[in-house]
Specification:
70 residues, mainly alpha, 60% helix
Length: 70
């Protein structure tokens, strides 16, 4: 899979801080950092499946939770 490199072009009358802020937002939205963090260590398929099942169980538990009346 080929990914396009995230880049930003300096706009007229834009400061370096604003440019850097826009770049950071683009990087976060593209999901590059989260992918790198996930792939930092090797995780076997069975371990990955176990983690996904735990996440799913937590999600389902949160959805079933009903707030008590105040």
């Amino acid at each position: 899979m080929i990914r396009q490199v995230t880049s930003v072009v300096l706009r007229p009358n834009e400061s370096q801080d604003q440019l850097l802020r826009r770049f950071r937002k683009k990087v976060v939205r593209s999901g590059v950092l989260s992918t790198v963090r996930k792939k930092r260590w090797f995780i076997s398929k069975s371990e990955n499946r176990r983690m996904e099942e735990k996440k799913s169980a937590r999600r389902m538990k949160r959805r079933q939770y009903t707030r008590p009346d105040r």
